[in-house]
Amino acid sequence: xxxxxxxxxxxxxxxxxxxxxxxxxxxxxxxxxxxxxxxxxxxxxxxxxxxxxxxxxxxxxxxxxxxxxxxxxxxxxxxxxxxxxxxxxxxxxxxxxxxxxxxxxxxxxxxxxxxxxxxxxxxxxxxxxxxxxxxxxxxxxxxxxxxxxxxxxxxxxxxxxxxxxxxxxxxxxxxxxxxxxxxxxxxxxxxxxxxxxxx
Length: 199
Fold this sequence. Notes:
Layout lengths: L2 H23 L4 H17 L9 H29 L21 H8 L3 H11 L5 H8 L3 H22 L34
Helix pairs in contact: 1-2, 1-3, 2-3, 3-6, 4-7, 5-7, 6-7
């Protein structure tokens, strides 16, 4: 199979998995999701000779880098708006939580938010994308042992945060099988499933 054919197969099979990966990390910003996904596959096209036989974890790694660029762009825009005195509240875009904002599992998301970005990502790769440790290693660009250690430490830190934040009515799941709640699905998306060969 030629490099072009390899890329075309990866695009067909994994476009929606990559879209879900990006959407989960850009919650509520569908226009930016499309832009980042386009960037991911642009990079994949340019590097189509590097595509591995199982390309999805590799594509997640590319998506991580594209998302990092997007976040840096947001930071630059926020700093510019701050200098101009043109913040979100001035435009009436401040979000106020309604009475039903305390949704089930919100405390788990709060615990996750207290972790470092690196810890959050390794947990999301295993809970949301359902990657095995060797696949996490590909997505993070590190060795399998390093990925396993990162995951072990991240789970330990998450359990510590859950112990502090767990709700008074429901005991926190702090055992080895503690899982992150599934993220909200993008509008129009099918139920996310493990996607290692079907798009």
